[in-house]
Amino acid sequence: MSRSKRSIPVFARYWLFQLPGIFLAVLALAVLVHWDLITTGLAAVLLGFWVLKDLAMFPFLRVGYEPAGRPAGADALVGAVGVVREPLGAEREGWVRLGPELWRAVSPGAGEVPAGSRVRVVSVQGLVLSVEREEA
Q1: Which one is predicted more confidently, 8 or 128?
Q2: In the CATH scheme, what architecture does the domain 73-133 have?
């Protein structure tokens, strides 16, 4: 599925969530204009800034509006490839780097796995990864 086809529903969900805030901003600005506390022009500018703020925040908040069809949390690590930082084995925990993070890991079926080896995450038990050596 292309990025533009995915972005349209996400963008629509984001804006549907922003509508109540925009409605309240319009209502507050209308009251301020009615009481002659601000001019209509200033109210329009302030509303424009409110909408621009919502547009500027979309790239940062988009992830929260994407459908939850993929695993989250530690389960999302299954299948990830990392590099062993400290030797590990079935009975000996070591450290594995996955991207910028270090995780405790064991390698139940691969025997001793030396530092520098590439491994793939097979499962997660609490905060300890179960990994297997990745074939080159």
Answers
A1: 128
A2: Beta Barrel (2.40)
